Amino acid sequence: MNDADYPIETVSTPDPSDGPERVVEIQLAGLADNDDPIHNAGIKTAYNFASPANRRATGPLSRFVAMVEGRTYAPMIDHIEATTGSLERTDRRATQPVTLTGPRGRTMTYEFGLSKQQRGRFEGCWLTDRVLATRPVE
């Protein structure tokens, strides 16, 4: 994988002092106002917090953007409400459910799966391995 566009320096990047709940919060905050301060800043922030395995499966950035803009993840972009559930955590893995209401009123529940990186550029940082759409909420 070509990491020439990673990390994107104009948006938030991983920090070892951030726990998994904070990592989810950072991504949700970015996606809530996706185009601030730059176009697709929220999606680019989520890309920065994607684990290496996640980026291998979903990258490069252009493909990641298209995926997030697709039907499954579109409610994340400019969402108007986010409700986080209880975080489940071990030393190296965490999951957290999040229910989002999108700008058109569509509500979806997602499960963020994160892991603490054991090596590489972001060793010690929590990064997102997956975001699964678990169900639409009517």
From TrEMBL:
Pfam families membership: DUF4864 (PF16156)
InterPro entries registered for this protein in UniProt: DUF4864 (IPR032347)
Chain positions covered by the region annotation Disordered: 1-21, 84-104
Domain of life assignment: Archaea
Protein name stated in the entry: DUF4864 domain-containing protein
Species for this entry: Halobellus salinus
